[in-house]
Amino acid sequence: MNNILITGGAGFIGRNFIELLSSNYGKIYIIDNFSLGLREAFSSDKIKVIEFDLKNEFKMFDEIDCEEVHEIWHFAANSDIPSGIKNINVDFENTFITTLNTIKIANKYKVKKFNFASSSAVYGDWDIALKESLGPLKPISNYGSMKLASEAALCSFGFKEEVDINIFRFPNVVGVPATHGVILDFFKKIKLNGFLDVLGNGTQKKSYLHVKELISAMNFVNSKSNENINIINIGNNDDGITVKEIAELVVKKYDNEIKINYGENDYGWIGDVPKFKFNTDKLNNLGWRPELSSHDSVELAIDEIFNRLNL
Amino acid sequence: MNNILITGGAGFIGRNFIELLSSNYGKIYIIDNFSLGLREAFSSDKIKVIEFDLKNEFKMFDEIDCEEVHEIWHFAANSDIPSGIKNINVDFENTFITTLNTIKIANKYKVKKFNFASSSAVYGDWDIALKESLGPLKPISNYGSMKLASEAALCSFGFKEEVDINIFRFPNVVGVPATHGVILDFFKKIKLNGFLDVLGNGTQKKSYLHVKELISAMNFVNSKSNENINIINIGNNDDGITVKEIAELVVKKYDNEIKINYGENDYGWIGDVPKFKFNTDKLNNLGWRPELSSHDSVELAIDEIFNRLNL
């Protein structure tokens, strides 16, 4: 069985990946800086956790010392779009430099397969369904731009070194253990204030996927694709769900009535892509479809987050 | 008149830009590290030259101290594709980090217009004409990937700070004072060896534009565009010219017979896009067309380089 290295392996995507797929692999090396990653122990003793911040190249290969690595899953990144708005260094260091350093790791271990968590945010703001063949790419957040910069670095690396690269463009992903995102934000605001202030007027409408389905889709694509550089949207191709609907689903969890106040803008913050619909033909044609709609994914995640928060 | 700041202002593109367009502007600040830039003096005393390497952020604002800057033309980059093949740091530092630092300069001076020299290399290797709307972008060289990474950073910056950005995707640009490129390489090889060894089998076929036409096109687009982020191919939409034809035009400059030896691959080196044709509808529809074909641009440049080299 292949040994794998997972960057950001203790985070939201990484934890779910390991829970669902660790039996497919031999030794599993996890690199995490634990800025958002959870410190809970992992269940299996074939997992080795390396605490290291991949934005630092200095002493990287002293700290990261594996036997063999056959495959990389690179999830380490800034995962919080608003936090990178004021200062590009947040996404530059945590998303782009971590990618360059992970490429250096892949090079050292002569890895032949590299999987990367990219984002729908690379497209920018369009009023048509986002398809992989769409251009030009004009990301409107530093989050999106440093995901695109990472894609670019992976393309030239994968071509030259003959490493197969899967670039998964994620939609909004929901589930537990969420570390940020609209649902968690809403619960936190209600707990703090007793009411819910929504960023934007609630009309923002986006595509969501449950994290367990995301992992299933990536695993499927990874087993099927034979492209050198495979850029693929992972998600739902339905019309998405509005922020207003999400807010209403969240407040329904409370016995007492929670007042919802909407803002005036049709976007949540500068750099927020207010509406997007995914074209997932490539994924569907490969043979994978989600079981849950955007709406049902969100509803399930609301239950899971509510239960986990013990509200 | 607007003051402008030109990065890489002493280089191939920068020198031609200043020769043709300096009368349109007020004060002109040039930043160059003179790694390839020419040390010849500039003709006008409204030009201020700052010797600084933009890959360093340290002391950047001590060295770069301008009065007002209204517009930036960002040409500083690694301009030599093969030199960045072995080590991504060449393009990472000289193309991408220089862009991030130039964005920081733009921010400091509250610049409202930013022009960037990108490249057809962002597309990767396609067998159809390269159009701005084409995707997914899969650059095959670190040169192309760090140009794309720079585009990405400029998109999110331009959107958030409401700075109008022109992203010019260049074809192969020829003329003097060339610092590298196929024509100069051929003359140097003939001088050194007395014969001409060509990288690849000569079938590589690409679109070329003369540098004086490139400057004219950029100036035209800059005066016409009203897009926030304007990504546009600059070049010829003809079928291009083969390396074999270029080699034959070069050897014709000599009185004695020069033997041409071709390689076996249909590409020049790993990361070389062997064939490309540009779709320039966007540029043409805006109202600009080149006067010279790819063939005639190359032929003119061969004369100019031959004369300048005093062969």
The Rg value of chain A, from CA coordinates, equals 19 Å
- Judged by helices, strands and strand pairing, the structural class of chain A is alpha/beta
The helicity of chain A comes to 25-40%
- Chain oligomer state: homodimer
Label the overall shape of chain A. globular
Q: CATH superfamily of the largest domain in chain A, please?
A: NAD(P)-binding Rossmann-like Domain
The helix-strand sequence of chain A is EHEEHEHEHEEHEEEHEEHEHH
Largest interface: A-B, 36 and 36 residues
| Helical run tally of chain A | 9
Folded structure, characterized:
- The structure is a homodimer of 311-residue chains.
- Chain A is of the alpha/beta class and 311 residues long.
- Chain A has 2 domains: 4-173 and 208-233, NAD(P)-binding Rossmann-like Domain (Rossmann fold, 3-Layer(aba) Sandwich); 177-206 and 239-276 and 292-309, Alpha-Beta Complex (UDP-galactose 4-epimerase, domain 1), CATH 3.90.25.
- Chain A contains 9 helices and 13 strands.
- Chain A has helices at residues 12-21, 60-63, 88-108, 142-161, 182-193, 211-224, 243-251, 281-286, 294-309; strands at 4-7, 28-32, 47-51, 71-74, 113-119, 164-170, 172-174, 196-198, 205-206, 208-210, 229-233, 241-242, 260-262.
- In chain A, the strands form 4 sheets. Chain A has a 7-stranded parallel β-sheet with strand order 3-2-1-4-5-6-11, with helices on both faces. Chain A has a two-stranded parallel ribbon with strand order 7-10.
- In chain A, helix 1 (12-21) packs across helix 6 (211-224), helix 3 (88-108) packs parallel to helix 4 and helix 5 (182-193) crosses helix 7.
- Chains A and B meet through helix 3 and helix 4 of A and helix 3 and helix 4 of B.
